[in-house]
Specification:
The protein has seven helices and eleven strands. With about 290 residues, the protein is an alpha+beta fold. The strands form three sheets. A five-stranded mixed barrel has the order 5-8-9-11-10. Strands 3-2-1-4 form a four-stranded mixed sheet. Helix 6 crosses helix 7. The longest helix is centred in the middle third of the chain and has 26 residues. The protein is globular and about 60 Å long. The relative contact order is 0.11.
């Protein structure tokens, strides 16, 4: 397969980039065996590079959309290679193929709390549910069998991401307070923001879908202790997993001042301790 010409960079830069990509792929498995991650070039109306998976798993082999990357090729490859550094799969650059990359609805959930959502959306917001679809849902017709195979392919992406997370070095952390305890006067720094639709509030107004999007924040205090909190939106959005323009959008590095909050859950993941807060009241400094 010939390497596509990359827009916006010189031939020398392109040659260097492909050389680095070949080095990254050295020693990884054949795409016929495990599939391959595709970084797809921008196209009219889609200015960003995008990330896809070619999977040999379904009976009819599939190219499955994961998410958009950056309009910059170097940033896009950095994001993809970091995410899948420990995966056996290669990463290759390809042009968009309208015939093979358009969804035929085979990856659209037709039941349950995520009915009407695509599997790639569930990969981001609820991988445990994706695992249930992949390995516990019992198909009744051939079309559902293909749906399950596609879910298994998407879940394999989650497993690749988890390999990287399990190998990351994490600083020691401790729980804040005790279950049910009220904490006060917290100063927290945002280290991660994840957007998730509330499936119980999502509705259709006439012909327009309305999504109420939660911001799931991971934060740290001054000692590096990890905190999780959920910020529900007050205003609906017409686009899944996208905040309404009038909602406050939290960003990495933001400082949040909490006047009071309740410890609702404490759990450990990959050696790090997390404290989940509920009934959060922000201090006036954060308004």
């Amino acid at each position: 397969m010939a390497n596509p010409r990359l827009p916006g960079i010189s031939e020398n830069e392109q040659a260097l980039l492909y050389a680095k990509l070949n080095e990254y792929n050295r020693g990884r498995a054949s795409f016929k065996e495990v599939g391959v991650y595709l970084v797809v070039l921008p196209r009219p109306g889609k200015p960003n590079y995008s990330l896809w998976l070619y999977s040999p798993l379904p009976e009819k082999q599939s190219i499955l959309y994961i998410h958009d990357l950056s309009p910059d090729i170097n940033d896009s490859l950095r994001m993809a290679s970091t995410m899948f550094y420990y995966s056996r799969r290669c990463i290759i650059l390809v042009d968009y193929n309208e015939k093979r990359m358009q969804s035929n609805g085979d990856d659209l959930i037709f039941f349950g709390k995520y009915r009407g959502h695509f599997l790639h959306e569930i990969l981001k917001i609820d991988p445990a549910y994706l695992s249930w679809v992949a390995y516990k849902f019992i198909p009744k017709i051939p079309k559902q069998e293909r749906f399950v195979k596609i879910a298994q392919a998407y879940y394999s992406i989650h497993l690749d991401i988890m390999i990287r997370k399990s190998r990351e070095k994490r600083s020691p952390s401790r729980y804040l307070g005790e279950l049910g305890e009220k904490l006060t006067d917290l100063k927290l720094k945002v280290t991660r923001v994840r957007l998730e639709d509330d499936p119980y509030k999502t509705r259709v107004n006439g012909t327009t879908p309305q999504f109420f999007v939660k911001q799931i924040l991971t934060l740290t205090d001054a000692s590096g202790n990890l905190v999780i909190m959920s910020i529900p939106s007050k205003n609906p959005s017409a686009i899944s997993c996208t905040l309404s323009g009038i909602e406050h959008e939290y960003r990495l590095g933001d400082i949040i001042y909490v006047a009071s909050a309740k410890v609702s859950r404490q759990y450990e993941s990959y050696g790090s301790k997390y404290t989940r807060l509920s009934h959060v009241k922000f201090a006036s400094l954060n308004v």
